[in-house]
Specification:
By secondary structure, the chain is of the alpha+beta class. The chain contains nine helices and eleven strands.
Length: 321
Amino acid sequence: MIDPQDRFWSEGQNYCGPRENPTPKTYYNVWDWDQLRMVKVKGTAKLFPPEEDRELSILARFANYLSPEVRAITVDDDGLLTGLPTDLEEDYTLYFLHMFLSRSVARWPMAVQMAWDELNIFNSLPPHPNIIPFDRVVVEDQESRVIGFTTKYIPGGTLANPKILFRFEWLQQVTQVVDFLNLELGVMHQDIAPCNLLIDPYTQKIVLFDFDRATSRKKRLYEGRDDVTSVVFTLYELITNDTCIPHWDRHIGMVQSISEWIVNRELDSDVSKFRNFLSQWVATRRSDGDMERYLNAPHRFTWPDLPTAPDYNVPFEMGTT
């Protein structure tokens, strides 16, 4: 179950009258990440003054008990339920169209191949304390087409939050998990970044996720996205908060050669300790034979080729469900 503070997202307040008047009716469209649908929260400006986000806590009290047919909740000025509208016009949930597979492959062949590779690589990864666990594949209930997959939910946020103190042991964990992926499994993640490094609040360990650019061997190796380069720029961004260098312009020497990194984040050790460790690790990984070690990883796994898309059509009229 998703933590209530992360489960709901509000599109904002809609007033049916002047904001300074507490009596006009107001409503919010609130997205429920657990149920993947929109629920309208209706009340008055007295209960929902501007900029206080009360609609999230109000909905959280009732969300687990609502029937799928309920499109909205209406509450009085004390936050108590007065109505559970089921009218479709109250429902602002977007309809997600799953296009025909044959058309999707023809129009976006690279995207489909990446999704296939991500699913197979992620599902094949052995358990590791610094890699988010794969949960299950999600299929739709009519034709059993794959529409996604789920992972363990970790509520601790990511290192993209500059207010989080960065620990030296987390740098060690990042380099260790990269070595494991590259040199043991022959997998290149290709998207190591602060936003893809979760903090597990229970273990206080770094957890890597988002394998949508992951690959094996030499296919789809992108310039500037190799994992060693990405670790260097991740640490640079974490310490300096400088995020202005795009991946296609990245070269390790660009930041390694900077004599002083301006510290714009709280660290648990002196910046020199981070940089010395990083330099030693990069020197080891950049030694002769690193690419051969990656290509000849002892526990490399394989997966089947992308299947041929079936060529059939299902009648569908735009604007209807």
